[in-house]
Amino acid sequence: MKSPRVVLILGVIAGLVVGVVLSRWMFVSDTPAPATTSPITAPTGTTSAINGTTAVLSKQLSVDDARRLAEVLAQVRREYVDEIPDDKLVDGAMRGMLSGLDAHSAYLDRREFEEIRRGAAGNYPGIGIEVSAENGFIKVQRPLEDSPAARAGIRAGDLILRIDGEAVGTNVAEAIEQMRGPAGSLVRLTVRRAARDELVDVVLERARVEVHSVTGAKLDSRHAYLRIASFSDTTPIDFERTIQRLRSEQPNLKGVVIDLRNNPGGVLEGAVAVADAMLDQGNIVVARGRAVDARFRMDAEPGQLLAGIEIAVLVNGASASAAEIVAGALKDNGRALLVGRRTYGKGSVQSVIPLSNGHAIKLTTSRYATPSGTYINERGIEPDVILSGPDSAPTDPSVDDEVRAALRELQRRAPRGTRTAEAKTPKIS
Q1: Which end of the chain is more exposed for a tag (fewer CB within 10 A), N or C?
Q2: CA–CA distance, 380 with 374 (Å, rounded to integer)
Q3: Helix, strand, or coil here: 22?
Q4: Going from the N-terminus, what domains does the chain have, and what CATH number goes with each?
Q5: What is this structure's pTM?
Q6: 335 neighbors 278 (Cβ within 8 angstroms)
Q7: How far apart are CA 187 and CA 177, in angstroms?
Q8: Residue 261 near residue 392 (C-beta atoms within 8 A)
Q9: Is 348 annotated in the active site?
Q10: pLDDT digit string, tens, across residues 65-122
């Protein structure tokens, strides 16, 4: 595989994501693409003195556009009811420029840029829980292993009512922001324990949390379950380690259910590496864009980690972007059976480009197609086996009806994993 650029496959918006990890749902590599900004100079005759300050406009603007921009800035500075600092006005103009392009492009200030970098790295300072918005509450999906939340006794199913005494709404992103903070600082959660309908106050000390985006469990002596919650830089390593552990614990392993439900996406390279680990050959994804490095094709290399093992992939309407790349690659190459509901349909690629002031822009640079040549944007991927009823979030796999449905499909279908016999050499030590 060739990866010409470190890019981002952006997850869906917060309101559509159930089970968001506290590191947020948008990711980019630790080594983002280099900035490609040009020196900004004003075209002749368009530099204007505005309240004693020179407005420097890009030479790439026409004279009329530069003049129009200068006029708006002058009017706002002179007549808006409150005095606004110039840097705030400029930030607002850039946010408007990017957000006007599409739903996924954005201007990122330092804090937002750092959030994305942390998410891609697979660690962040916080308390370590997955949460979702359900029935007007922020609900704990699970505490992460060996996290402050797990050590403090936070349980799956707890409803978070207050954070440091402030009532919590239904906005997942705002709740995440309230629970975030420097390692070593304290946060108090008031939770309603579902089992006994009691209120419990829990004080937690924030710490640096390692997010393992892959979890695994035994379903029976011959079948296992893997859930991939999102794709970060560390997901391929987590995936390999989880598979190695399961194969060691289950020497007669014949089938695996891979759960991509509510997976909002993440780092492109992480998703491609995971797909490659299950394929011997064939295309994984093709991207098309205007820039040279926005046009690329990624193919599988020989060998795979699950040779001889059948695969069923669970998806739903909140399986998006990078999750759809993996699902599409496995389906189109005939490697896995897709079970569930039509995926979200987010078929674009975002690059995060740093700016000279420490901020960044997140810009849609490509649209991608699955190996069959299908562009899935706003269409999604239809499963091979469609389950009835509304989307549901992943729960304990031992009692999850959709996991059991996927397992039944594995048991009744002809083996798919036996098409290849060579195992990929593990890439971890």
Answers
A1: C
A2: 10
A3: coil
A4: 1-36+63-122+211-429 (3.90.226.10), 124-210 (2.30.42.10)
A5: 0.72
A6: yes
A7: 12
A8: yes
A9: no
A10: 888 888 999 999 999 999 999 999 999 999 999 999 998 899 998 888 887 887 676 6
